[in-house]
Amino acid sequence: AQTVTQSQPEMSVQEAETVTLSCTYDTSESDYYLFWYKQPPSRQMILVIRQEAYKQQNATENRFSVNFQKAAKSFSLKISDSQLGDAAMYFCAYRGSNTGNQFYFGTGTSLTVIP
Amino acid sequence: DAGVIQSPRHEVTEMGQEVTLRCKPISGHDYLFWYRQTMMRGLELLIYFNNNVPIDDSGMPEDRFSAKMPNASFSTLKIQPSEPRDSAVYFCATSSGRAGAGELFFGEGSRLTVL
Asked: Which of B79, B85, B75, B82 lies closest to B107, judged by CA?
């Protein structure tokens, strides 16, 4: 089975500053998708950003961007100009093309935004 | 589209009672996943279906848990008899297996408390 590792259980950032959340994964596939999901206290799981492995360009969604290093199997999330509403649990997820379309999730990083 | 719809949002029951959680997937999505989330164990995949057929139920904790998908519009997760350790948030999530489609869409979750 694929594994997704988030080595930072908790992170904090000052409001308006930038923070990077780490994620690594293990796979032998060449074609796959990577995702970052956000889970605020409301518990709704919200897609933040996605990256297709065949794309070399890093995905960007407004203040959220990723640093995708395919060879290193690394997929970090950068949040710029952090806002109080960014406080949440963030999950990294992997979906392979040859693993029955199953999703594999990391254990999550709890992000605190300090006013 | 209304998104993934789960019911009930909250359920409080007593040990030994039967619990049924329901899920209506997004129309056209051919994959349906049931997850359980707790503080101790994080997000766990219980079972998933493809075209209404169970593909992997290795995450189902024990025989007290069962899941069905009688048609493309409806799935249930049943716990009988329930125990206090089953207290958790249960998520239903769906996705499309079409190439390039990618992400997982989550329902709002059902918070189960077993007394």
From this structure: B75
pLDDT of residue B1: 63
Contacts of A48 (CB under 8 A, 6+ apart): A35, A36, A37, A38, A61, A64, A77, A90
Q: Which pLDDT band, with edges at 50, 70 and 90, does B99 fall under?
A: low
A107 in helix, strand or coil?
A: coil
The residue type found at B37 is Q
Q: For residue A70, give the nearest of A33, A100, A97 by alpha carbon.
A: A33
Instruction: Using DSSP, state whether A30 is helix, strand or coil.
Output: coil
Q: Which of A35, A44, A93 sits opposite B108 (nearest CB)?
A: A44
CA distance A31 to chain B (A): 11
- Return the HEC string of chain B: CCCCEEECCEEEECCCCCEEEEEECCCCCCEEEEEEEECCCEEEEEEEEECCEEEECCCCCCCCEEEEEEECCEEEEEECCCCHHHCEEEEEEEECCCCCCCCCEECCCEEEEEC
Cβ-based contacts of A38 with chain B (< 8 Å): none
Least confident of A26-30, A48-52, B3-7: A26-30
DSSP state of A106: -
DSSP string, B15-35: TT--EEEEEEPPTT--EEEEE
